[in-house]
C-alpha cells in the first residue's frame, strides 16, 4: 500500500460506515460522531494548517482510539486531496498525492506488551507511518515530546485520540495549546465527543486489524505492569447474577463489515506467547472480548 491508496481505502471505509442502515442507536450516533470529527478536521484544522505541510504530526500508540482517529484522519486527507484537484485548473492526471508517509510520534517510555509493539509495527507498514519512537530513557511524557519537537522543529500541531471520558479529558477542546508545564504545540483533539460504543462500532465495521489484547478482554491498554483484562468482562455472571453488559452489541457492523473476511469473526492481531503467559499469571479465568463492554465509566477498570 502507498499512503495515497491507504488514504483512499480509509475514505471508502468511512463512506461505507456513513451509508449503513440506522439499525441500532449505536450506528446512528457513530455517524454523528464521524460527521463532527470530519467537520472539525476539514473545516477548522485543515483550514488553519495545511495537512501536507508537515506542520501536523499524528500521535499513535496502537490503542483503539488513535486507530479510529487514524482511519478518519487519513479519510479526510484523501478528501482534502480530492478537493484540491477539483479546485485546480489542471486535470487530475497532473496531481500527485503530496505525502508518502504520515509524520507520527510514538512515546515508548514504559514496558509495552509485545502484542501491542507488533501491532504498531504492522500499522506502520500498512498505513505508511513515519514513526518517531522516543528513546526509552525519557523521564516524563513532556520530556519525550520536547525531544520529538527538538528533532522535528517543523511540527506545530499534534493530533491526539483523547476522548472526554478519558482521565482529564472532560474539559478539553478540539484545538488548544498545551498546558504551561508542557512543550509548546497545538493539540488537535477531534475524537473528544466519541463514546466507547462508537469506537467499537466503527472499528468492527472497518475490518481493520485491532490489537489482539482487546480480544482477551482488555478495554484500554497501558504498560505490562499496569494493565489487566477488564474485570467487568469475566465470563461469569455479575453480582446480580446477570450478563447484561456482556453481549456483542455490534453484530450489524460485523455482518456488514467493509472487510468481507471479518464477517466470520472480528480481526484481532495474534497475541504473543509471552503476553499470554503474563495475562494467565495474573488472571486464570476467561474474559469476554473488550468490545462486549460499552460503559464508558468501566473502560479503564483494567488499568491498575
Ligand atoms: P486505549 O485506551 O484502548 O489504550 P488509546 O491508547 O488510543 O486507546 P488513550 O490511552 O486514552 O487511548 O490515549 C489517548 C491518545 O493519546 C491516544 O489515542 C494517542 O493519540 C495519544 N497517546 C497516548 N499515549 C501515547 C504514547 N505513548 N505515544 C503517542 N501517543 C500517545
TrEMBL record:
GO terms for biological process: FAD biosynthetic process. It is an enzyme of class 2 (transferase). Signal peptide: none annotated. The keyword Ribonucleoprotein does not apply. It comes from the Eukaryota. Keywords: ATP-binding, FAD, Flavoprotein, FMN, Nucleotide-binding, Nucleotidyltransferase, Transferase. Its EC number is 2.7.7.2. It catalyses: FMN + ATP + H(+) = FAD + diphosphate. Pathway: Cofactor biosynthesis; FAD biosynthesis; FAD from FMN: step 1/1. One of its GO terms (molecular function) is FMN adenylyltransferase activity. The keyword Cytoplasm does not apply. Gene3D superfamilies: HUPs (3.40.50.620). Residues 56-228 form the Phosphoadenosine phosphosulphate reductase domain. PANTHER family: FAD SYNTHASE (PTHR23293:SF9), FAD SYNTHETASE-RELATED FMN ADENYLYLTRANSFERASE (PTHR23293). This is FAD synthase.
